[in-house]
Amino acid sequence: MTRSSPTRLAALRAHLAAAGLDGFVVPLTDEHMSEYVGGYAQRLGWLTGFQGSAGSAAVLADRAAIFTDGRYTLQVREQVDGDHWEYAPVPQTSVAAWLGTHVAEGARIGYDAWLHTSAWVAEASAIVADRGAELVAVDANPIDAIWTDRPAPSPARITIQPDDFAGASSAEKRARVADWLAEQRADAVVLSALDSIAWTLNIRGDDVSHTPVALSYAIVGADGTTDLFVAPEKLDDTVRQHLGNAVRVHDRAAFQPALRDFAGKRVAADPERAVAAISDALTAGGAKVLALRDPVVLAKALKNPVEIAGHRAASVRDGAALARFLRWVETDCADGSQTELSATAKLLAFREATGLLKDTSFDTISATGAHGASPHYHCTEESNVPLEPGQLYLVDSGGQYADGTTDVTRVMPIGALAPEQGKEIRDRFTRVLKGHIAIATAVFPDGTLGGQIDAFARRPLWEAGLDFAHGTGHGIGAYLAVHEGPQRIASPNYPGGAAMEPLRAGMMLSNEPGYYKAGEYGIRIENLLLIEPRTIPGADRAMLGFETLTFCPIERTLIEPSLLTQPELAWLNAYHAQVLDTLSPEMTGDDLAWLQEKCAPIG
């Protein structure tokens, strides 16, 4: 796998020295604190060679470290040169803690205030100050100065998300924000998260791969009127008409100066989603900054009936496309003639054949054999390998459709597995399936935290001394981000802490326990779920449960039925019956016959 040249690290150090800095911090995000970012913001990847979706780095004059969590333990070692970079595991350590150990007294460590939250700045400043060093905000990001072929931000036009898909008008959504501002006695709220802006204004964009958002900022006032800051060339007359007179449009470059116009006003800014530069500018202008969560975050997570119906429709067409692909894997890949990349292309072709695909919802994880043991493996021309008989093939993928965003993982054997390996794999696969079923069938009180049910998915693995190093479930958007908060299912030691958001009816989550054996294979079974009310006779509390939204067979040859309880077996057979009933109208010929075979009851 191609690694970043050490000359880039040397160039950064030289630039820092010329600027009077002894170090610099490089996060993988943009000025909107996005998880997935445009090419222009891929500074970490350019500097280090790391191609994962989460990480950061710290560079000092004599040493440098890259920080990644358990999802990338293998990947970071393949992509980042260990001769020049230390591998720092998260959450066992952090950038701030590492600096606190290695920074020299009197050092000046630079950071870009447009890429960090105020909380991070405060924490890191205190830690380095304890060492007699100083954290310094830079006027311009030094990587941009040495990245000579850095891509420009996307010029893509904004599009409209019709009310028929959104389920509520922009005016209705902005009125809800105004009501929230009244409750908080606030004059305005800054919306800096791209998906919050897209959802509130019922617009979409093409500025970030796989996430249909437009690079912009918005400030919503107490009366619901909104100032949108965006490159003017992104708007045509149709979009301007859609936005209406209550949305005033400004050049994106006018955003920072506008933050200084709120003297004496109470302005809300999300401490997790608004970067430090926003709070700094508001404070400098005399505003009272209210550190409150963006009011759109929860509203967006609670899907309305139109969004739910749209997701169901998207899930059917997407499930049929994936089922056709899995049949192709089984019938055409056993001879070793296909590769991870050719399989990715084939799956894309099946989705494109629906005629409604807008984009994939993330880079497809097409991983065979040992590559499957890296949960967020990213296949490249350099890492691409054949799908060889005797291996497990893991494919985690999703589609972006105007009516919904999908995300699903399935595992298939390539040809026949060796007897002993097959026995172990069936045991592990079935334990993952048991955990998946435990989440799918969970019933819990309204307001339960996602972290409280995470252990349901892990118990079957724990009983065999096994576990997995990622969360069990994340929220998902409605033709928006494939990873959407605030809800999630995760253990307390997952990066970012426990999933502390109460679960509510209308939220969508993934259900994706897994198991990964380094150097050999990976297993993950992922469906999407909708939280809905549950009626229990005699209950004295409001209860919730999950409806499974994803329809695609779970590979039966990898299941060891003797490990399943009767209720688990009943769930599996009922699920496959529903898959068959739902997808049969979409399938014909050999595809339908294959589906019928895969969905037959397991006795």
Automatic annotation (TrEMBL):
Residues 311-532 form the Peptidase M24 domain. InterPro entries: Creatin/AminoP/Spt16_N, Creatinase/aminopeptidase-like, Creatinase_N, Pept_M24, Pept_M24B, Peptidase_M24_C, X-Pro_aminopeptidase_P. Keywords: Aminopeptidase, Hydrolase, Metal-binding, Protease. GO terms for cellular component: cytoplasm. Pfam families: Creatinase_N, Creatinase_N_2, Peptidase_M24, Peptidase_M24_C. Residues 8-139 form the Creatinase N-terminal domain. Residues 543-602 form the Peptidase M24 C-terminal domain. GO terms for molecular function: metal ion binding; metalloaminopeptidase activity. Belongs to the peptidase M24B family. This is Xaa-Pro aminopeptidase.
